[in-house]
Structure formats: structure tokens, C-alpha cells
Known about the structure:
Elements: E1 2-5, E2 10-13, E3 21-26, H1 37-55, E4 59-64, H2 71-80, H3 84-101, H4 117-129, E5 133-136, E6 139-142, H5 158-163, E7 179-184, E8 199-201, H6 203-215, E9 219-225, H7 229-244, E10 249-255, E11 258-260, E12 263-264, H8 275-281, H9 284-292, E13 300-301, H10 304-327, H11 342-359, H12 364-384, H13 390-410, H14 421-440, H15 444-456, E14 460-464, E15 467-471, H16 478-494, H17 498-510, E16 513-518, E17 521-526
Helix pairs in contact: 2-3, 4-6, 6-7, 9-10, 10-12, 10-13, 11-12, 11-13, 12-13, 14-15, 14-16, 14-17, 16-17
The structure holds one RNA strand of 76 nucleotides.
Amino acid sequence: MRVYNTLSGRKEELVTLEPQKVKIYACGPTTYNYIHLGNARPLVVFDTLRRYLAYRGYEVTYVQNFTDVDDKIINRSQEEGEEAIKLAERYINEYFKDADTLNILRADVHPRASQHIEDMIDAIGKLIDKGFAYEVDGDIFYRVKAFKDYGKLSGRSVEDMLSGARVEVDERKEEPVDFALWKAAKPGEPFWDSPWGKGRPGWHIECSVMSTKYLGDTIDIHGGGSDLIFPHHENEIAQAEALTGKPFVNYWMHNGFITINSEKMSKSLGNFFLLREVLDKFPADVVRFYLIATHYRSPLDFDDGKLEEARKALGRLKTTLMLVDEFQQDRSAVDEQLQESELLEKVNNLQQEFIVAMDDDFNTARAIGHLFEISHLINSYLAKASRDNAQDQAVVTKAMAVLKELGQVLGIFIDQESDQGAELEDVLQILAGLRQAARQEKDYSLADDIRHFLGSLDISIEDTPAGTRFRYEAVPELKLLMEKLIDLRASFKSQKRYEKADYIRDSLQQAGIIVEDTREGARWKIAEA
RNA sequence: GGGCGGAUGGCGAAGUGGCUAACGCUGUGGUCUGCAAAACCACCAUCCACCGGUUCGAAUCCGGUUCCGCCCUCCA
Length: 529
């Protein structure tokens, strides 16, 4: 398995500290707002990385922090009159809602800066003792010149930075490039007690401290967005390696940005979309698919059209799942009489190619391409297969298991549970029955009326030799379907087509829905409720 | 100014020395259908920003040019 390492600027064979075990630290969000789509990319990218490593037999330990002590949080809390830690906590909870929707697995540990102040004070003290930090008026700065490897990650030299320094210079610092480890508290700010007075930690120290605390002095992979390379990750290295004398991270991985009209999506430019706004318009699996359909290091341009395309593309894979589901007679009883099959041979080859693609720096784009090829093979096979043929059943089931398994590794098959599933399906089938009968009687206006009605609810209807099938992305509301059925029944009654009206009432009853006629009209209820 | 990366069909996006340049979207023709949708079948880049070089052979390596993005300030 090969991984692009920012440190060396090339792909390297992944050799973990311990065989078949991998320790990953991912930089998490600063929680002063809802996350935007740009924040979601590393979440999905590193979640996919993690799933894939687990799929390949690694025991993964995954740590993702929350920055809940920070200038932006303090500013926000002063604007809104909410205590900083409370505000941060509130957005941490909101973060989990978004992440869960996107099918992001929880980390093994989600450490928060606010809960590791003691550890940070301890680390800062040691850095001072070793000569890597100095105090000025209650502030502590890191002495960049003392760390000889400074700049090795971002590929720049201290000299270059000093000459081209655009940093607003704090005169008290020994060098403009020195950065804050500890900031003395200003009036009205949250603070903790330290040997240097009341204050709070700088941003960079938390990751060094929490990474080493939970994963050890040296870890395998540290990930985040490319904008963290400098200064954040550079400073993490300086802090941690000065402290331990050991390499901090073996593989640094950075994802590219999401752009809008080729400009980076960012809060300061104001061109961002909150993840939940996007999730309002598009299902989570589509968003996830969109985020990994491009290689993680490439820029990814955003607009609704791209998501629409992702919706259609993913829909193709889901269609295969649906077609197989429809084809299968009895899922449990297969598998025994499995014979040689050209389909399975090809599918197994594609599974290997999927692995080759993912092994090559997690090339999800190429891997997804192989998924489409599998999908295509299964669809073609299905078109000629026979439901009653045990061999066909076995082969298709086996092929689909591969597709599902690989989709699961990428996290793109998110099951959408419906709470009224049973009734809903029955009601749809009753509508299908009415339409089917209308078609047989050549009453196409009624047949089309039903189809158009369903179309208006974003349910599309497809006739197949085996019957009628429904497709929808958002689970439709039972209430609306019932209103239509009640309407139809009323019009049948007024036309004195009682056999149709009764068909509706009787089949609803069988489905567990009771229709009662009253003076004002009909009403309905679910029998068990 | 310094550092890093990119330029592939109508669009998106893989491919980093050698079979017909993946895959998806769109489009076209066909099968199927009361109509439709889905599915299936077939077709859609003699060419990979430009110029030069290395090589038997390059989109793929090297040099140069143009254009674009990112980082150097909080940012995933």
C-alpha cells in the first residue's frame, strides 16, 4: 500500500510502526459554527481511509480532536453572550449530527483542548526548560530558531520566512516567526491558571499534546486539509519533536480544497455552504459520493450541477442493488450449487482492481470506476438471467455481495430507514394495482393520472414484465398517498363503479389501514396504531 | 518575492514509458413499452495547454513558455 507523504513529496510504501496496526490523528474542527462543505471533505476522506485500512485487515486507532478553546470561539461567545465553553460544546453536538448523517464513524477518542489544559501547561513548561520556548509578560513563545528542522514539512526555510515576513510583528518576540504557546488572558476572556499567570493555550500545542497522549510519541498518519500544512502542522512538529526527540508523524496526508468558481471555499471569503444546507437539497449518500468521486488531493469544484451528476451516477449503482433485490427469490438458500461462472470471475478481478486502486494512495476515483464496471456486468447478466434458475440466483447473489461490500468500504451505501415502511409499500402496491387494471381496460387517462400523481411526489413508476416498480429518493408521505386513494375511491363511488371502490377499501384493510365512511367523507387510520 | 500543485473529449474525472486514453454525466441510434421510465446493446478524444529534447516508443521523463489554483495571516 502506498501513501503520498507531504513530508517527502512523494508516494511511499506504508510501513506502520506495528504490523497490521495503524495509528491515525485527524485534525478536527474549531467548533464555533456549523461545519461547511469544505470542512466535510477531510471528514469523509479520512473516514474512508480508515474504513479501507480496516477492510485490509489493519487494527485502526483513530483520534480526532475538537478545538474548543480559540479566539474565534471567544469572539463569538462575546457577540452572543454565551459562555465560550458552552458555545463550543453546543457546536460539538451539532457537529456530530452532521457527521453521523454523512456516515462518518466515531473516532476512538474525541479529545477536546479544554480538557487537556494541564497536559499542555506541562508540555510548555518542558519546552521552556529545554530552551525551545521563552516567556514575555505572561505570554509564552516557541523559539523557532532553536528547532533545526523547522520548515521541513512545508518546504521552506526559516531564513526565507524571516526575509519575506508578512507577519504582523509582535516586537516582544525574539523573531517574527516565533509563535504563541500560551497567551495571557485579556479582561473578560476565559482563562486557566498556569505558572505564568492566567491565560490559555495557543492553537498548535493542543494537537501535539493530545496526539502524543493518546497515540504515543510517534504515530503513523496525521491528516488534515492542505491549509494546515503551514503553520499548524509545521508547528506541531516543532513542538512535539523538540519535546520527545523522536519523529512525531511518519506519514502526513493532506486533502485538497473545495473550490467555488475555482476559488477556495472559506469562511473569510464568505463563499461557503453549510453542510446542512447541502444536505437539505441532496441525500447524504450523494454528498459522500460526490466528495470521494475525485481523488482526495485534487481540488474539487462545487456547484449544484456536480451534486446532481453525483446523484445520477450513484443512482446507477443503487439501481443494480434494486434490480438484484427484485431478482432474488430466496436469499438464504443460495450459494451451495455455485458453479464456475464467467461473471463471478470478472467481478472478482474487478474487486482485485478496486484494491489495487485503493492501495495506490487511496484512489477512490479509480476504485469507483471499477464499481461501475461491476454494476454494468451484473445488469447485463440480469437482463438474460432467469429467476427460476438456481445457478443464476447463486451467481447474482454472490456478485452483488461483492458490490455491496466494496460500496460499504467507501461508505456510499447508506440505508434509509422508513418508519412507515410496511404500510407505505402496500399502499403503493394498491395504487399500482389500480393502474394495472386501468391499463388492461385501456383506461389510459386513469393510468396516467396515477402515474402523474406519483410523479408529483417524486416517485417514478416503471413497468416491467414482472410487475410495477417504484423508485424514490425521499421516502414519500403516507398521508398524501392515502388522500389520493380516498379521492379515487370517492370518484369511483360517484361513478357507481363500486367494485373499484371496494377493491380500494378491501385491499387497504388487508394492509392494515381502515377506511371509515362518515357524513363529511372518508377518513382512515392505521389499524395497529 | 519565496514555497507547493495543476492544465486530459461537450462537462466531470482516472491514467505517469508501450494492447483499442478507465469510469460517470450529457448526446445519438437500436431493443423493450399503450405512452413513458428503467434496463440492455452500439456509437461519441488519431489525441492529452504550447515549444523543444531524451527514447525503438511519451499524455506519461527532462528543459522552457503560457495560463490557473493554493500556502507564506485564522481557515479543512
